[in-house]
Specification:
The protein has about 130 residues and is an all-alpha fold. It contains 5 helices and no strands.
């Protein structure tokens, strides 16, 4: 779930950047304030979250691309992806997420960390729909 959150927030921050681009400083500040409050954070803490989630999000996307490249290379030889490679990629994903969570815990104020975990384990988790 934390992996999904990092990917979600990385995409959300890209969207927010696009939405604030070309707006007045007051409008951009208002959007940023509202975005931070949606996660139960102050703007400064949300900026820290954005820095960490963008870095972890990029790393996760790169690992996903490696998996796609591996699967495609194996498919060209009419072979299945190697389980050992898939396990290694999954371990790298887990490591990235763990590092991201540790970074967040280190850079966020204690109350922001509690709020963020509350958001992830509450509204974010409840919003995930399995079909």
């Amino acid at each position: 779930m934390y992996r999904q959150f990092f990917q979600f927030h990385s995409s959300f921050s890209d969207w927010l950047t696009a939405r604030t681009s070309g707006r007045s400083a007051a409008e951009a500040a208002d959007l940023n304030r509202k975005a931070a409050s949606a996660f139960g954070l102050k703007e400064a803490d949300h900026q820290q979250l954005t820095v960490v989630s963008n870095g972890i999000g990029r790393e996760l996307r790169a690992i996903d691309q490696e998996q796609i490249a591996h699967a495609n290379a194996r498919a060209r030889m009419e072979q299945h992806p190697l389980p050992v490679v898939l396990r290694q990629l999954e371990l790298r994903r887990q490591d990235a997420v763990n590092r991201g969570m540790t970074q967040l815990q280190q850079v966020l104020q204690a109350e922001a960390w509690v709020s963020l975990r509350g958001y992830i384990n509450g509204p974010y988790r409840n919003g995930i729909r399995v079909r």
